[in-house]
Amino acid sequence: MTKMTEIDLQQLQQAMLSYLQKHWKIFFAEGVFFVILGTLAVIVPHVFTIGITIFLGWLLLLAGIVQLIRAVRFITMPGFSLWFLTGLLQTVVGYFLVMEPAQGSLTLTLLLTVFFAIEGLVKTYLALMMRPLAHWGSMLFSGITALVLAIVVWAGWPSTGLWVLGLLLGINMIFLGWTLVRISLHHKTSGE
C-alpha cells in the first residue's frame, strides 16, 4: 500500500469539492431528513429502541429462514453444514429479537456502542481528509460526538439499554443531518 501524496490528497479534495457542488441538493435533502428523523427518535427513544430491535429481528429471522431453505435444498453442496449453521444462527437471533425485544435491545445497545466508536473514527478521518474545505470542522465535530456517545452508552450500561439505543441514534442522526445541511448550503452553486 502506497502512502498518499500531497498531490493525491489535493486531487481527492478537488473531486470531493466538485461532487459536493454538483449534488448539494441531495446532501441538503438527506440532511433535513436525518434532522427530522433524529428529532423524533430523541422525543420517543423507547419507541425507537424497541422498533429498531423488532425490525432487525424480523430481517434476521426472514433471512435465516431463506438461508435454511436454500441449504436444505442443496444438501449435497460443499459447505452445507456452514450454510445451515449460518441460517440457523440468523433464525435463532432474529426470533430472539422479535420475541424478547427488551432483552434484545440490551444486546443491540452494546453493538451500537461499537458502531458509534467506529463511526466516530471514520468521520474524524473524513474530516481530516476534507480539512482545507469549508466546514470540515463540522464533520470532525460529528466524529467526536459519535465517540462521546459510545463512551456514554458504555458508562451507563445496563440501565441505559432500554432507551439509549433510540436516543443516541436520534442524536447521531441530528448531528449528521446538521453537518450535511451546513456542507450542502456552503457548496450550493450559484447557477441553481
From TrEMBL:
Keywords: Membrane, Transmembrane, Transmembrane helix. The keyword Transmembrane helix applies. GO terms for cellular component: plasma membrane. Pfam families: DUF308 (PF03729). The chain crosses the membrane at residues 26-44, 50-68, 80-98, 104-122, 134-157, 163-181. This is DUF308 domain-containing protein. It comes from Methylomarinum roseum. The lineage of its organism: Bacteria, Pseudomonadati, Pseudomonadota, Gammaproteobacteria, Methylococcales.
